[in-house]
Amino acid sequence: IVVGNETTYSDGQGQTRNVTDLLEGAKKANVVLEARQLAMKIFEDYTVSWYWIIIGLVIAMVASLIFIVLLRFLAGIMVWVMIVMVILVLGYGIFHCYLEYAKLKGEEGSDISLADLGFQTDLRVYLHLRQTWLAFMIILSILEVLILLLLIFLRKRILIAIALIREASRAIGHIMTSLLFPLCTFFLLCLCIAYWASTAVFLSTSNEAVYKVFNESACPFAGQTCAPETFNASNVTKQCPDAQCLFAFYGGETSYHRYLIALQFFNLFMFFWLVNFVIALGQVTLAGAFASYYWAFKKPEDIPAFPLFSAFGRALRYHTGSLAFGSLILAIVQVIRVVLEYLDHRLKAAENKVAKFILGCLKCCFWCLEKFLKFLNRNAYIMVAIYGTNFCTSARNAFFLLMRNIIRVAVLDKVTDFLLFLGKLLVVGSVGILAFFFFTHRIKLVQDTAPSLNYYWVPILTVIVGSYLIAHGFFSVYGMCVDTLFLCFCEDLERNDGSPERPYLMSPELSGILLKGTLEPSQSTDSQG
């Protein structure tokens, strides 16, 4: 590649550059143009498929609601049906990937590796490669084997987890409004996102147009800022007749413009704080409602008339400070993680391996810290809802209560979380498969109704992500209910002994399985000691 039979050229600013720099610039410009074309095609796909996407999300909502209602009455059967269906859905995915892999055998260009192909804006190209379907098949097979192994090793604990889910179903059955509470949390989160986005846009567009003096010949004013309105009447044109006042960039040279990035970070910090506060408010409200069910001596006679609204009012009136403090700690850690990602992005071109290693270690540590704080905050908010203590006291009591019951936490509570995750996976997988067959025109009844798309994966991925968020909203109520009942169960075991003077407040059905699975081993150990 040459410019005028030369491998170097002048860039017009007095510098000599290599033609490879020109080639790299052309490649980057081509990537920008291809990305713009990709964005336009994606936008076109959304314009012709948005109503079908909404229908898919409505189907996901109805499926999640039906699943939750059935779980209320048929908890044991639904859990096993859910396990079998998840295994079958993953099995079908493996079978479909194998069919596509075998069908591409012998076709021209199908044996090209992903590394040789590189990044392509038209993602349909990857579906014509055997290696793509082989990778999908391997990933689904690993996931299938992991789920089967977990089910084999945890088969006895699944029965106990089903009892806890059945008890959670009873609690939700007495507090049906809890299923609609995620809509309130979602609305508040939308307000937080809107506030952050509008503030970020205002900050990013608050820059001013900066004009500077440009001159082809030597000029003492070259590079200085200027005002286009008064430039022709200034002394610059008298000393430098060919000078021009041209637009340079958007920005500013005031203190406000110099610290604009700091204001953006502060806006991001406030966004994290508000989002964590809204999530904490939802957790305390649900925990307060389900705790009132557990600690009712006679169920459902002793349950308050409006437990969800009562818990919401208590959270706003008495626990706002605890929620704000817990959210603040989590927001600080999240902002530190963002700063580390920003530094990692800025230091990508650096060759200092020690700095990269330290930065990687810090990112890993703060990721673990954030996960631990989310777990601790969740249980601390449950203790806040039960006892009304401040955040620090509740976090300490929750932590030591969980440590005293670490085996139950690791086995029982996490098995229940795993079963609820399978429920979300079932809803998302079913709706995703339905969307795949619809948008790829493989359903004969509606083959002519499906829109023609540039990339059929655009609405499919949108439906899958939206279905997961919807399913997560419904199943998060179950998750919070299970965590609250489990913590109340551990507290009940320490406060009471089952005697007539201090009877257990758990339901007879729950005590029949949980006490059999958790107390008898400890009692036999004590008797042997």
TrEMBL record:
Pfam families with a match to the protein in the record: Choline_transpo (PF04515)
Signal peptide: none
InterPro entries: Choline_transptr-like (IPR007603)
Subcellular location: Cell membrane; Mitochondrion outer membrane
Membrane topology: Multi-pass membrane protein
Record-annotated membrane-spanning stretches: 50-70, 77-95, 133-154, 175-197, 270-297, 318-340, 380-403, 415-439, 455-475
GO function term, MF aspect, one: antiporter activity
Reactions catalysed, as given in the entry: choline(out) + n H(+)(in) = choline(in) + n H(+)(out); ethanolamine(out) + n H(+)(in) = ethanolamine(in) + n H(+)(out)
Function statement: Choline transporter.
Record-stated family: Belongs to the CTL (choline transporter-like) family.
Name under which the protein is recorded: Choline transporter-like protein
Organism: Amazona collaria
Organism taxonomic ancestry: Eukaryota, Metazoa, Chordata, Craniata, Vertebrata
